[in-house]
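quick one
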Amino acid sequence: MIKKIAFMTGGGDCAGINAFIAAAVRQGIHQYQAEFVGIKKAFEGACSDRIEDHLLPLNLEAVNGLEVKPSTILESSRFNPFSKDNVEKGYPQKLLANLKKIGVDAVLATGGNDTIKSGMGLSKLNFPVISAPKSIDNDVSGTDTMLGYKTAITFGTAAVRSTVDSAKTHRRISIVEIMGREAGWLTLEIGIAGGADLILIPEKPVDLATLCDRIVALNQRQQYVNLVVAEGVRLKPDDPVLLRAKAENPVVKALVEEDLGIDSHGNPKLGGIGQILRRIIRTQLGLKKLEDVRATDLGFTLRGLAPVADDIVLGTRFGINAVDLLFAGVSGKMVGLQGTRIVTVDFADALVQKQVNWSENDLRSVGVVF
Ligand code: F6P
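structure w/ 6-O-phosphono-beta-D-fructofuranose:
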């Protein structure tokens, strides 16, 4: 019998998580007389020596007006209790003992791939867990969209439009780098809505000579070029244009060879492709000054945002349905949106990376280079 439910909000923060918490608390209290507590810093807080220092009690008063607030009130962490090392150190047992200590019977976890994996680990220990997908990357399967994605597109579009207008005014080449890990959704949709000329996404590898030819042609025609690039785009190591740029410019060589490391889930840390392309394009086009090509990194500006209406509505629907599932005795599932309906997805199905799958004709027509 479920009485007390804990929230954990792991992975990268984004908009809409607070709307999920607010709706779940309201639904749980009104429909099931449930109690709620937030565990700050997700699995890191839940596995800490003093879990009681990481708790935020959540009642109707605490969630009043919460749905419009940015990021997550529960902070976040990428700590992974189910990594090989942490399993050997006994963290899964510590997690269970801590949840028992604070009298929690079930967990609601918002997350991307990594938090869903941790939720799956917890549910395999027979502890009830329901997840709701959140990430600006929009890369979880079984759901059309995730919390935070629509807000990131809205804000990113405004930012790219501004760089587009500025590049027109100054007649120059502008590159905007956008997050998204190995998926190009965010860059693709912001690029289209923001009015970019050229779009680079990880799903469509590009050779640099083709890219530079396109830039030259556009530049001759309109005297400015706007390029958006996903952080997950990787250059082919033996691309002749890259080899030449590395040989001629030590900064390119250093940036390309820099090891950014991996996170606690084994994901490579990304970022910096915009600055690399800026230098390569300058060399290849024979431009005199580095400032003839400008690069902007939207970076974390797309993460700590207050939600747009779509994300408030999505968080609200996810919150209601996640609580209903727990009280119906369901565990080990993710809520998702398919079309206009809320659906229930197995964790294993959700974890298949959702990458851009538009037709080549559509991609080419909107400016994706490949
Ligand atoms: O998964 C969301 C995301 O913003 C990715 O787009 C990005 O690569 C990553 O998180 C950055 O992670 P961190 O906040 O750990 O630097």
